[in-house]
Every structure is written in structure tokens, then in C-alpha cells.
Amino acid sequence: MAKDDDVLDGLEVYRVGGAVRDELLGWPVFDNDWVVVGATAEEMTRRGFKPVGRDFPVFLHPQSLEEYALARTERKAGHGYTGFEVHASPEVTLEEDLSRRDLTINAIAQAPEGTLVDPFDGQADIARRLLRHVSLAFAEDPLRVLRTARFLARYAGLGFRIADETLALMRAMSARGELAHLAAERVWVETEKALKEPTPEHYFHALKACDALESWWPGLAARLDAALALLPRAPSSHAPLEHWRMALMASALDEAGREALIARLRLPNAVAALCRQVALTRALVATPLDAEAVFHWLERLDAFRKPEQVKAQLALVKTLSPERAPPLARAFESVRKVNPQVLMAEGLSGGELGRALRTRRETAVVAAVEGG
């Protein structure tokens, strides 16, 4: 809880949101968020807090750097997850501030002495393992559909499920086309977070259950089971786990579907590249071992200029088809030993040098793959 100090002296402060929820669940708590009731922005600044909020009054504590937000209410004034009019003033009560939150388990506050303030029965929903919306204002923000699905990906292993009435509300929001107003970058941020969670498959199952999947994941709904079955194959090195998981799911689609997904989500360049590379690798290990195909795979991965890309894909091969890893690793090492300087010393240059280099690399791959 908040430490007694001169900066906080006399302020009505409560810890709120995820820190309270996760402490009650026995889940690790990494960050604290605080709400301040009855104060003004001017008073916070006078006490040494640094204002950082662009859309509403949020301040950093001068010592701990934790976030302190003034109690506020919100009113919908546009489409999407933005377009809210925020009202923060000393008159806004703690309960009014909690009422604007998405789920009841996120609408619990804790006073400095440890007393819990729980006007929407969040503790009861924790006990029942329910993700339930606080109020019908949930429907004003389509991002909450993704957030609820993401919380399910985190807590499904603890027995949580989405409340029937909340799932019905999510389905109604989807039917109205509300999710189409979200920015692609924001959808990817939520999806990336979900892919880090213990059971990311629940994120996609929840979105499919509320008819939201096709809105942002074109083509994936029909291939969802096949795509999710690939998640356990994600390597533990060379790229973030969530990026491996995204790339593996994308590899369940054909090239057109994969490119549509990359474009729809506006995936970062590194993630998009990984999606394409994983598709190459899966195609390679799905067919009989062939030296020509291996050389083509190495070329497409730009093995001669970007060897780290091949090393990453070899890590994937170990999870997809362990028996393929040794010959592919040998082929990779063999082509790396073909030294252009040696060919130049033999008097080769220009196009002749390029052709000879390619021929010797191809011969090296054949020896590695067929010679064993």
C-alpha cells in the first residue's frame, strides 16, 4: 500500500484496478495504480506530482513514480475506444470512478489501511470465477471486448469464464460493427498481450464465441483449431514468445490469407517477416527432405547476409520436426563455409563470381543433405 509521506499527507488515496485484483487472486503484482478523491490537478502539481496524462489527469509520484489519477467520470461522445469526454473534479466520488471500469474484478479499491471498497461485488465474482461487466457502459468501448477476452486468456487456468450476460453484450457489440472502429495498432497491442498469457487460445475462442473474430482476423475463424494447435510449438529463443505464437497461427493460412492478416492488423515489420519465415519453414518440414528445397529455403531466409534468421528458424525446426534439425543445420553450416574470397583468389569476378558462388553453395547443400 501507499507509504506515509508528506506528498500524500491529507489526500484521500486508494489503490485500484489490477493490483488489487491480482493480490486477491494470489497472482503476481508488478505495478500499483492509485486514484485520488477530492483533489485538483493544481493541488497535485503543488505537492510535487508530475502530470503525464494527455486525455485525463494522471500524475507520477515524485519518489515512487507510480501513477496517481484523479477520480473521474466518462461520457461517450464518439466511436471506438477514444471519443470519451472525461470529467475530473473534487466532487467525483470513489464509487463513480469505479463505475466507469470494465469488469467488476477491476472495480475494487483498497484504502491505505487495507479496507476494500467493492460496490459492484467484484470479490464475489472472483470467488465465482466470473468476468462480468460493471454496467451497460461497457458497451461504449469496443476495446473492452478484446480486454475481456485477454483476461480470460490470463485467468482461464484458475477456472474463470465470461459471464453469460457479458458474453451476450460482447456479441451485441460485435453485431453492431463496433469493433470496426478500433485502430489496427490497438487491436495488435491487445492481441500481443493476450499471446503472452498462459492460455492464449482462450482469447481467440472468446472472440469467436462473440462473433468478433472475422472483424480483425480475416480467414482465421475457419482455420482456428488448426492455428491454435500450433501454439505449443513456439520456440523459447530468438524472438519473443508472443511473436512466435502469432507467426505460427498465421502459418495455418495460405499466402493470401496470411498477407491479408498482416495487412489488417498492420503488424510490425519484424512480426510480419517472422510470419513469412515461419510459413517457409513449415512448408519445408512438411515435405520430403530435398536439397533443392533446402537451398531455396536458405536463399529465402537470406542466410548469407542474415544468418540469425536461419538460426531462429532452426530453433523452430527443433519443435516442429526434431529429426529435420541436424541435416538442415549441416546444410546451413556448409554454405557458410563457402568463401567468396577463395573464388576471387582463383581469378573469378563479376557475374562469373556470382554464378560460381551459387554453384558451390548448392553443391555444399547437396553434400550436407544427401551425404548425411
Automatic annotation (TrEMBL):
Cofactor field: Mg(2+)
Sorted UniProt keywords: ATP-binding, Magnesium, Metal-binding, Nucleotide-binding, Nucleotidyltransferase, RNA repair, RNA-binding, Transferase, tRNA processing
Matches recorded under InterPro entries: CCA_bact, NT_sf, PolA_pol_head_dom, PolyA_RNA-bd, tRNA_CCA-adding_enzyme
tRNA nucleotidyltransferase/poly(A) polymerase RNA and SrmB- binding domain residues: 159-222
Any one GO molecular-function label of the UniProt entry: nucleotidyltransferase activity
Domain Poly A polymerase head: 14-132
Segment forming the signal sequence: none
Family in the record: Belongs to the tRNA nucleotidyltransferase/poly(A) polymerase family.
Protein name in the entry: Polynucleotide adenylyltransferase
Species in which this protein is naturally found: Vreelandella malpeensis
